[in-house]
Specification:
With 1428 residues, the protein is of the alpha+beta class. It has 53 helices and 26 strands. Helix 6 packs across helix 16.
């Protein structure tokens, strides 16, 4: 230290940035001798280089001299000469290096020798030089790219590298940010830099000593002080730049484990030098950065936002603070206050990878294990289980030495592969990387600048998770390129009708974008144009380069990231390398569902030695769902504590009545595998439990809503009502409901995502508000068990068998690892199957626990696991699984005629959809695409049609465009061919006055000619479609749909085949070619209409539901009625077309049909249950069921827990068939006997002792229906007319009397009569699985169902009382028609058939159970069943 009186050198050491402590003896007392020489050397050096820089412009290549374009805008795309490009590159590189040295020397000179002097002119000049260097650097990169294009354009990997570099340019960090990242990097690794810092200090001290000796020698010889020539001065900038470059090289080698720094020297240095702290080092490093270009500015104070004040509380159910809001409360707050969806504990940034471990540190971590992080585990953890044995709860199990050794070798190679992949993004480094044979050779290349090394060092220190994943995958990739695995084709081929119906059903949930995209795609298909999705229009896909390998630093890597699933070894390496990564981040890197599922499985069995991978599913509640393929990402099970009904005041209080009601529903949102049989079964099961849970499913790939509740009032999950007065008079305010906003906010709120789209997004929420969250959880788990067909607890592991057989557990360390090829060890599957295992089953709701040992079956409720009744039901719901092993099946809503009718489908809708196809040929522009950023969508809400009816119905294209799949034109409004042919022949001849009068009376006479009016053609009907009564078309479509549903729900053996035969005969008679000159049948039908005083030319349509006419289908209906009866009157002239049909080629096969032999049909009774309703069955019929209910009451059990399995096996397949047909449907009614009045039970009847069938008990013990015990005007079955006495009395008066017993078609379990919406809740019932169902039609078990049908037929027949008189009688659903002879009977039977089968067009007679044109003796010989 110098004496206190002497001045101290004001320079800062170049090595550590500390103030020099030597005496200032030169430069007027500013510097010591060493720093004086150093300062002068720096000054002379940068002055000399400034002169070189100025002269360099004169030496520029001719291209740069003659080019008028600024260098910043130059791309060199027009330069094709390799030599010229070489000159440009050499010049730019020289200028770039020289600029760097000038800038660095000036910075060092000013920073270390004049730190207290502010020279703004000096800083401005530095900024100018820095900007110039930046321009030269960008030009140099473009020159390198152009050289690569000229030299390597023919290489297959070149295109891909260009894309990588382009992406790097787009995402390149700004220079200021790089400076901060650089400083942070050195701060993190300051210990690793101690060796480099120590070497710099030793070098500087040696130079100081040499400078002192040199000065003494010169003083003694020449006696001259401090006078040396500039060209002899020592210039330290070269040493400084070399030190800076080596600093980055050392760090890169440290990151890549290529050079291990001397740890012992570092520790000694740390012990000796306590003053060299990390902060000091960082300050020095920041000052030494050569990339600074702008002066430090004083940070501006961020203004306080105007709305920083605490907002006033809003009138919503959520009254929690920001930190307390979770689940639906947080979503509601986000909607109302526009808060961020990310929770405070979410970490959506890249995980901290800054602490790059040395090989020894990593070995130690794997050898000793690390403490597990349970910070985000909120549920119970089961310790001592197969997955989490004792001793593995606190720390990860240690790895064995041989496994660690193999892993270390792999990681070293992965680090090199990672380094090579990162090099591809740097254009200036790529030429050197392509030429280098190793990483060492590349790093030692003198052409690589310090700035490039800095950028590369930042990348190597903090690679992205995707880069790490790609490098791990590269290690195990084969030499052959991966085969293309494009997205599998969609199973459904959407038509115009499908798109229209989908939008009509789910448009409010999925938005209009899906509709427009698919309509445009469908139009493109029609026109034969390529189909382009909306995503492809907005983001055109780049051309995929040819797959090949490129040689980087001696390593051969593929020119694309692996799209295949990474192996378990690869994920193990990834977990070790990215040790700070959370599993939530890792799953985003999975390529498909199978890889994601495998990763989850391995994590749950502690295969990965990573502490942060536990929070994914360590708690038992979440793990159970994960094991069953259900991955929730949004859960709120707090409805019970959140809901409340508060009331105060009232008539007896001094305060006014007021109320505060809040109702919440528990909800869980999860991902499940797309197009999977297990997923399909689970979703189907849940969709059948609408009394408990509600379901909505979104397709992750297409964005399409697959299913959702049909009623909008079922979509809410949070609602409230507050106010003054009675709560019943106040309306509910919907706070949260399932919809697009809910989807978007949950997407923002969630803390993990999948990196693929092969999934369903499943939303499940409670139907009943305020229930315990455990009930929803239990329902989901039970249905998942059944979807996996788990019969007993040990079956939980069956679907994991292929994984468990390949893993083993070390008995000492409990470490799970892969079984090596040929190794004979005990696998995890052997551990799972050990008979000594004990499975514990807990019921959180009832707070019970049961244990099962080995493969035993627990003594629990039958619905807990998959059972026989579930299997019997599955055989009906999923018949394809009985004949195919294909598991890749999508989930589809149950679709039948009833659901299609509710969605607006039908014959007319199909016709309109086909018109849209035709319109595509006329319109070259689809509907205006929806602007998702606009507030309104005029095209979506306008009345403009997709098609033009006039243009679409052209003659030449009609038959081609409007053909159905079966080849027939859709035309239920058209008249039969027989009618058209015969009326044409009649019109060609003479019509007498009597017949003209008939035509006039029935409205078929043309005013001018008196001929028979012909029916409209298809084209004429299309043109008049807009003027046709829509209600009439709707009801006609409904009639067709209901007939289809009725016969699909007819479970009588062989019934469907008989009905199809009837339809074939009737259609064959009506649509045969009318060549016969006998027109008696036609005039007969018109006479019947005239007799009934019914016309065919009604212009209006009745709005009265029970009225049979007027409507526009009178002619079709009377012809169908005549064809029904003509089958049984083949001897009459009026039925000649029927006789001709049975003689034709088409009709010969029906000549021996039992329809012609009533005695044969009467000899065998139908194999079905009786139609007796619940009210009229004897009490003994229900005795066994009453005993079961009494047992449940005595044992305080739920009825479903004691329901006989044999009964359940019998009735659940029946219910499934009725459900698929649309006869019954899951109902939005709580599955409680207090709400549902019926129970589905099984029983036998005397005539079917060995066959159980479905019966509904409507005893309504808890008065759930609210219906009275008696009905006004009730007619009991024993009060119905008896047919035989009536027939005998009629036959006594008419010896030639003929009779017809017409039975209305009905299925074994229901009548063809609609059940009003208001009555469906009252007759809802529960099945053996505690699911609530509703009847869409009148069930035969409903109380007084017989009277319902009797009254229905009575109302219709009374309309023709004047014509029918006493010739017709009926009881329940059977009608007796009496005629004096065959012709008379034909007349009355046709009239009755017409009256019953016309509007509403869904009731028909069952000809197989009817007996037409029989005598009294036949009636007397019938079994009483046929006349009841």
């Amino acid at each position: 230290m110098p004496p206190p009186s002497e001045p101290i050198c004001q320079a800062l050491n170049l090595s550590d940035g500390k103030r020099c402590t030597n005496a200032a003896i030169v430069w007027d007392g500013l510097f010591c001798r060493f720093h004086g020489k150093q300062c002068h050397g720096l000054y002379a050096g940068y002055k000399k280089r400034n002169a070189q820089l100025d002269s360099l412009a004169e030496q520029a290549p001719p291209y740069l001299k003659s080019n008028e374009k600024p260098l910043a805008n130059e791309t060199f795309e027009h330069v094709d000469d390799e030599a010229v490009l070489g000159q440009i590159h050499s010049h730019l590189l020289s200028e770039y290096v020289l600029l760097g040295k000038v800038i660095d020397a000036r910075k060092l000179h000013h920073k270390h020798f004049f730190p207290l002097k502010l020279d703004y002119g000096h800083q401005a000049y530095l900024d100018t030089l820095s900007n110039r260097r930046h321009i030269v650097l960008r030009a140099l990169e473009k020159a390198v790219k152009r050289i690569a294009e000229v030299l390597y354009a023919k290489e297959r990997w070149f295109t891909w590298i260009g894309e990588v570099q382009h992406n790097e340019e787009v995402t390149r960090e700004k220079e200021a940010k790089k400076v901060k990242l650089e400083a942070a990097m050195f701060k993190r690794h300051w210990k690793k830099m101690q060796t480099r810092l120590r070497a710099q200090r030793e070098k500087e001290e040696k130079q100081r000593q040499e400078a002192f000796l040199e000065s003494v020698y010169q003083e003694r010889i020449n006696a001259v002080t401090e006078s040396e020539q500039d060209d002899e001065m020592w210039d330290p900038i070269e040493d400084f730049l070399e030190d800076e470059r080596c600093k980055y090289v050392d760090l890169i080698k440290h990151f890549l484990w290529m050079e291990i720094l001397n740890e012992e020297e570092e520790n000694q240095e740390a012990e000796q030098s306590t003053s060299a702290t990390a902060t000091d080092l960082v300050a020095g490093v920041k000052d030494l950065g050569v990339s600074k270009s702008a002066p430090t500015k004083k940070p501006k104070r961020k203004p306080k936002p105007k709305d920083a004040k605490t907002p006033e509380s809003r009138s919503t159910p959520i009254r929690q603070s920001q930190s307390e809001r979770t689940g639906q409360g947080r979503i509601l707050a986000m909607m109302g206050n526009k808060e961020s969806g990310r929770r405070a504990d979410d970490n959506n940034a890249e995980p901290d990878k800054s602490n790059i471990e040395t090989e020894e540190e990593m070995r130690k971590r794997l050898k000793e294990g690390v403490e597990k992080n349970y910070s985000e585990v909120y549920g119970p953890i089961l310790v001592g289980s197969l997955e989490t044995p004792h001793g593995t709860h606190d720390k990860t199990p240690p790895m064995e030495d041989d496994e660690i050794e193999g892993l270390m070798q792999d990681i070293k190679e992965i680090k090199l592969l990672l380094f090579c992949r990162l090099l591809l993004a740097h254009a200036t480094l790529l030429p050197a990387a392509l030429q280098a044979n190793s990483v060492d050779e590349f790093l030692n290349d003198a052409k690589i600048t310090e700035a490039d090394l800095r950028d590369l060092c930042l990348k190597v220190e903090q690679p992205s998770l995707q880069d790490i994943r790609d490098a791990c995958a590269d290690l195990l990739r084969e030499d052959e390129p991966e085969t293309e695995k494009g997205k599998e084709e969609e199973n459904e081929n959407l038509s115009f009708e499908d798109i229209i119906l989908q939008d009509r059903r789910f448009g409010r949930l999925q938005g209009p974008a899906w509709y427009y995209e698919n309509m445009v795609a469908q139009r493109s298909k029609v026109l034969g144009e390529p189909v382009i999705s909306l995503k492809e229009l907005l983001m055109p896909a780049s051309k995929q380069p040819e797959k090949t390998k490129v040689q980087i630093c001696g390593k051969s890597i593929w020119n694309y990231s692996s799209e295949s699933s990474m192996s378990r070894e690869g994920w193990l390496q990834f977990s070790v390398l990215a040790k700070g990564c959370d599993l939530r981040k890792a799953v985003q890197l999975c390529r498909n569902w199978n890889e994601f599922s495998q990763l989850n499985f391995l994590a749950s069995w502690q295969y990965f030695p990573a502490s942060n991978w536990l929070s994914w599913g360590a708690d038992r509640v979440t793990k159970q769902l994960h094991d069953l393929g259900f991955f929730p990402f949004f859960t709120d099970l707090s409805a019970e504590s959140f809901s409340h009904h508060l009331q105060a005041g009232g008539s007896r209080s001094q305060q006014r009545r007021r109320h505060d009601f809040v109702e919440a529903r528990n909800i869980m949102v999860a991902h499940m595998k797309r197009d999977d049989s297990v997923t399909r079964r689970f979703l189907q099961y849940c969709s059948m439990r609408t009394g408990e849970v509600l379901l909505a499913v979104r397709d992750g790939r297409t964005g399409k809503i697959v299913t959702a509740p049909r009623k909008e009032e079922a979509l809410w999950t949070l609602r409230s009502k507050r106010g003054i007065g009675r709560a019943a008079k106040n309306e509910w305010d919907i706070e949260l409901e399932i919809g697009q906003d809910y989807f978007d906010f949950v997407e923002e709120y969630r803390n993990w995502h999948l990196g693929f789209d092969d999934y369903y997004e499943v939303w499940i929420w409670h139907f009943v508000p305020g229930q315990a969250g455990s009930l929803l959880y239990n329902t989901i788990v039970e249905e998942l068990r059944k979807a996996w067909r788990i019969v007993k607890p040990i079956d939980m592991y069956n679907h994991q068998e292929h994984y468990l057989r390949t893993l083993t557990r070390n008995e000492k360390t409990q470490r799970v690892r892969l079984i090596k090829p040929g190794e004979q060890v005990r696998s995890l599957w052997d551990d799972v199957q050990h008979p000594g295992n004990i499975f514990v089953l807990t019921d959180a709701t009832n707070k019970t626990m049961k244990t099962v040992q080995g493969d035993g079956t627990p003594d629990m409720a039958p619905h807990t696991f998959y059972n026989e009744s579930d299997a019997a039901e599955d055989a009906i719901l999923f018949p394809d699984e009985l004949i195919s092993l294909n598991r890749n099946v999508p989930f589809k809503e149950v679709s039948n005629a009833i659901t299609q009718l509710e969605d607006g489908s039908g014959t007319i809708s199909r016709y309109l959809a086909k018109l849209a196809v035709e319109s595509s040929y006329y319109s070259q522009k689809p509907r205006r695409a929806h602007d998702e950023y606009s507030d309104t969508d005029e095209s979506y809400n306008s009345d403009d049609s997709l098609y033009d009816l006039d243009e679409a119905s052209s003659d030449e294209n009609f038959e081609k465009v409007f053909k159905d799949e079966n080849g027939e034109v859709t035309k239920h409004w058209r008249l039969p061919r027989l009618w058209e042919d015969q009326t044409t022949k009649i019109n060609e001849g003479h019509i007498d006055a009597k017949k003209k009068k008939i035509l006039s009376n029935v409205g078929l006479s043309e005013i001018l000619t008196g001929k028979i009016k012909r029916g409209p053609t298809d084209r004429e009907f299309a043109k008049n479609l807009k003027n046709v009564d829509r209600l009439m078309l709707m009801e006609k479509d409904r009639g067709d749909a209901l007939l289809e549903a009725f016969h699909a729900g007819d479970l009588e053996p062989g019934a469907l085949g008989k009905y199809e035969e009837t339809c074939a005969i009737v259609n064959g008679i009506s649509n045969q070619q009318g060549t016969d000159s006998n027109h008696a049948w036609l005039w007969f039908t018109l006479e019947v209409l005239e007799w009934l005083e019914v016309r065919t030319d009604y212009a209006d349509y009745t709005q009265v539901a029970t009225a049979p006419w007027p409507h526009s289908f009178i002619t079709q209906d009377i012809l169908k009625a005549w064809a029904y009866m003509a089958i049984f009157f083949l001897d009459l002239e009026q039925c000649q077309p029927a006789t001709d049909f049975f003689k034709s080629e088409e009709g010969k096969k029906y000549q021996q049909s039992p329809l012609h032999d009533p005695r044969q049909r009467a000899s065998t009774l139908p194999d079905i249950r009786t139609k007796t309703s619940f009210k009229y069955r004897p009490k003994s019929f229900w005795k066994e069921w009453d005993d079961i209910l009494n047992k449940a009451k005595t044992t305080k059990s739920y009825y479903a827990d004691v329901f006989p399995m044999q009964w359940s096996v019998a009735i659940r397949p029946i219910l499934a068939k009725l459900y698929l047909a649309g006869i019954i449907a899951p109902t939005l009614i709580q599955n409680s006997p207090e709400v549902c009045s019926g129970f589905a039970v099984a029983n036998t009847e005397p005539h079917r002792r060995d066959k159980m069938d479905l019966f509904i008990d409507y005893a309504d013990r808890l008065e759930a229906s609210g219906y009275p015990a008696t009905w006004p005007g009730l007619v009991r079955p024993d009060e119905f007319p008896v047919f035989l006495p009536l027939a005998r009395a009629f036959a006594a008066k008419h010896p030639t009397a003929r009779f017809a017993v017409l039975r209305l078609w009905s299925a074994p379990h229901f009548y063809p009569a609609m059940l009003g919406d208001g009555n469906r809740m009252g007759f809802a019932f529960l099945d053996s699985a505690a699911r609530s169902w509703q009847w869409n039609f009148i069930a035969k078990d409903m109380p007084v169902s017989e009277w319902s049908m009797y009254n229905l037929l009575k109302q219709r027949l009374e309309l023709l009382k004047k014509q029918l008189g006493d010739r017709v009688a009926h009881r329940s659903d059977v009608i007796l028609v009496m005629g004096v002879d065959q012709l008379d009977l034909l007349r009355y039977a046709t009239a009755v058939t017409f009256a019953i089968q016309t509007k509403p067009w869904f009731r028909e007679f069952d000809l197989w159970k009817s007996f037409v044109n029989v005598d009294l003796g036949f009636l007397e010989g019938l079994d009483p069943y046929w006349l009841d």
